[in-house]
Amino acid sequence: MSSATDVGHHAAPCAGAAPCQDRPITPPDLSPDDLARIDSIQFPTRTIHRGETLYRTGDDFRSIYIVRVGCFKTVITHHDDHEQVTGFHLPGETLGLDGICTDRHACEAIALEDSSVCIVAFDLLETLCREVRTMQHHVHRLLSGEIVRESALMVMLGTMTAEQRVAAFLLDLSARLAARGYSSVEFQLRMTREEIGSFLGLKLETVSRMLSRFQKDGLIDTRGRQVRILDREKLSRV
Amino acid sequence: MSSATDVGHHAAPCAGAAPCQDRPITPPDLSPDDLARIDSIQFPTRTIHRGETLYRTGDDFRSIYIVRVGCFKTVITHHDDHEQVTGFHLPGETLGLDGICTDRHACEAIALEDSSVCIVAFDLLETLCREVRTMQHHVHRLLSGEIVRESALMVMLGTMTAEQRVAAFLLDLSARLAARGYSSVEFQLRMTREEIGSFLGLKLETVSRMLSRFQKDGLIDTRGRQVRILDREKLSRV
DNA sequence: CGGACCTTTGAGCTGACTCAACTCTGGTGG
DNA sequence: CCACCAGAGTTGAGTCAGCTCAAAGGTCCG
């Protein structure tokens, strides 16, 4: 298992963690033949430094990306200046699915720390999906999963209080880190309070106040961007 | 073109309107061979009366549905009782994509008026997508389009005032009706103020107040659920 | 060690909510 | 044909969660 320090930097997935390095989008339960077929493909990678963008709104859509290392935010720009964060993307997660429908990216993806992605050319992926049924279904699940996740977010934005949103945000992050082999208890936020607020439909001061409240009530321990979850039970019942 | 009365009841799409009846999910630009292949399939239909459900949360996922006639809402049930509307679905639009990722439906679809859907068995669709490349891409676009639409909704819920949300809701509905060959100027809301509010993250009183305000300011003309858009320009600049 | 950026905390304000009363509409039955 | 009723919609008055504005720490990095 990773040490707390490593985990905080998203640098060391557990041994045996989910696909990432060389098999970015391999579905589970693949037949040996199909596995060989997919393993034979070399997916290129790309490094994006903190603050740099992976793609911008309106860019031609050619490929989707799997985060290997690091962390991204996706942002929609409104009326020229005002921008809203629509998601955060951790290692193992997918970026760029929004581009399929119009052949142009509908948002901008920005690295929150020095990061690396695996590039999956979309026409190659479509070919693969026509040849390998398991792969096809895997991609359909991926897309559908994104839809379900966004529906859940809409419910959050539509019904929850500021306190509930921040709690839900921490728990969601924790669960996603756990799914990728990182610690679900202690981690480092890679985003600012303002970015969290933008994502949750809150102002940065409100996010800060809620974190302070959780701290005071003994639900979490925070020091800047370092977060330790002390009472998951209470946090989920906020 | 349809008369205003017909339009109000969603009963008469224009001649030449988007696919609906016998070719529920036919992509554009299909080769004659592929068109013949897809045309040979008989998709079953199903009638759902007002207030009845097409599928419920947790139901086995077998197929997706294309609305032929009528109107649906999709609802997520939270903590047993509290429920939130996650979307409205007009003729020609798709229902059930949320079920792919877990093989179970993640929400409930309820008819807002007597309606009819076309049933597309998902394994058949996947087979078709493996055989017909154009169809495959069409389905990918469909899924991606849903993701983009939901992102836009998240931005709305995260940043807009009550007034802006209601205005955006009316304009969105208008545009979608237009896309299916109905009037974009005058139409009948099939949902209650409460359902609109649930969808927009507002209370029914607030929705009602905003509609009254638009009426007073001469942006729209409403009489119960009948809506006529008088000043689209101003409405979009609210 | 200086400066830019991020974070915390306080004080007052306001848009949307809550609660409540009243009206309108469509359907039902006497 | 009208009376009635239940569900839907409108409108008003008061409240409060989250926003705005402001000022004081913290932290990171050159």
Give a short account of the largest sheet of chain A. Answer: 4 strands, antiparallel
* Assembly level: homodimer
The CATH C-level name of the largest domain in chain A is: Mainly Beta
CATH superfamily of the largest domain in chain A: Jelly Rolls
Cα radius of gyration of chain A in angstroms? 18 Å
The figure for the number of domains of chain A is 2
> What share of residues are in beta strands of chain A?
15-25%
In the sheet with the most strands of chain A, the strands line up as 1-8-3-6
What's the tally of helices of chain A? 8
Number of strands of chain A: 11
List the secondary-structure elements of chain A in sequence, H or E: HHEEEEEEEEHHHEHHEEH
Question: What is the third-level CATH name, the topology of the largest domain in chain A?
Answer: Jelly Rolls
Using the alpha-carbon principal axes, give the shape of chain A. Answer: globular
CATH architecture of the largest domain in chain A: Sandwich
Distance between the termini of chain A: 30 Å
Low-pLDDT segments, ≥5 res of chain A: 1-20
Alpha-beta content class of chain A: alpha+beta
Mean pLDDT of chain A: 89
Largest interface: A-B, 43 and 43 residues
Protein name (chains A, B): Crp/FNR family transcriptional regulator
GO molecular function, one term (chains A, B): DNA-binding transcription factor activity
Domain Cyclic nucleotide-binding (chains A, B): 26-96
Keywords (chains A, B): DNA-binding, Transcription, Transcription regulation
